[in-house]
Amino acid sequence: NYFCEVTCTSFLTVFKIHFFHLFFLLDCEFHGGRGFVYCLPGSSKIFSVYCDQETSLGGWLLIQQRMDGSLNFNRTWQDYKRGFGSLNDKGEGEFWLGNDYLHLLTQRGSILRVELEDWDGKGAYAEYHFRVGSEEEGYALQVSSYTGTAGDALVEGSVEEGSEYTSHNGMQFSTFDRDADQWEENCAEVYGGGWWYNNCQAANLNGIYYAGGSYDPRNNSPYEIENGVVWVPFRGADYSLRVVRMKIKPLVTQ
Ligand SMILES: *[C@@H]1O[C@H](CO)[C@@H](O)[C@H](O)[C@H]1NC(C)=O
Ligand SMILES: [Ca+2]
């Protein structure tokens, strides 16, 4: 794994780079390897991305990570739009890249890789074709072509509760201060994070971080609900995962 730093000198330069080559290869030889590095419009300063060079041929850009519950993910539309949190130089930390970036980086198609780890160290993954709409489109989620070992929480959703209520595909993004879900109440408010809620969820990777794994929703306050860091087909709704991360790479590589 390498940590690459890109100096983005001006908004214009960055925008051109972005517009004509959604991604480009930057020489990370300095750090002992090579990786995809993304330059994002609006980053007029040093923008650091974490380049994972080890998982399935490398070239992944980390877009979300939970690992110790140190960061509050129950945040506003503006926070999710711009991103929050940070990583250290080992790629450790909790963060959300930002929905504007997700839209820009996925508009030509990308692969999403979700990695999950429970409190016994058991891991699982899920991969999808992945696109996030613009803010005008409510950052709507488009996912398809599931492969993996974790189960298909994003398209199929929860088999028990029914796909039509729990699939995240096609859903707009919701935060507690902007409810775009399919429930008469506010999923984001009670499930504790910004997400593509339906009525409500089979995956809640930005949910409330409960240490230890299994939890009894009756003890959760202020909502007695299964609002942990959840991937239903992997460990069920009443199990909050220890580590979750989301990574993307372009669908068509050069
Ligand atoms: C999330 O934050 C909102 C606003 O502060 C609050 O009303 C809500 O109860 C919080 N949700 C959870 C699950 O803590
Ligand atoms: Ca609602």
From TrEMBL:
Looking up InterPro entries in the UniProt record yields: FIB_ANG-like, Fibrinogen-like_C, Fibrinogen_a/b/g_C_1, Fibrinogen_a/b/g_C_dom, Fibrinogen_CS
Q: What's the protein here called? A: Fibrinogen C-terminal domain-containing protein
Q: Biological process (GO) annotations?
A: blood coagulation, common pathway; fibrinolysis; platelet aggregation; positive regulation of heterotypic cell-cell adhesion
Q: Which organism is it from?
A: Sciurus vulgaris
Q: Which UniProt keywords apply?
A: Blood coagulation, Calcium, Coiled coil, Disulfide bond, Glycoprotein, Hemostasis, Metal-binding, Secreted, Signal
Concerning SUPFAM superfamilies, the annotation shows: Fibrinogen C-terminal domain-like
Q: Which Pfam families match?
A: Fibrinogen_C
Which GO molecular function terms does the record list? extracellular matrix structural constituent; metal ion binding; protein-macromolecule adaptor activity
Gene Ontology cellular component list: fibrinogen complex
Q: Does the keyword Secreted apply?
A: yes
- Signal sequence interval, chain numbering: 1-35
UniProt subcellular location: Secreted
UniProt domain Fibrinogen C-terminal: residue ranges: 19-252
Give the record's subunit note: Heterohexamer; disulfide linked. Contains 2 sets of 3 non-identical chains (alpha, beta and gamma). The 2 heterotrimers are in head to head conformation with the N-termini in a small central domain.
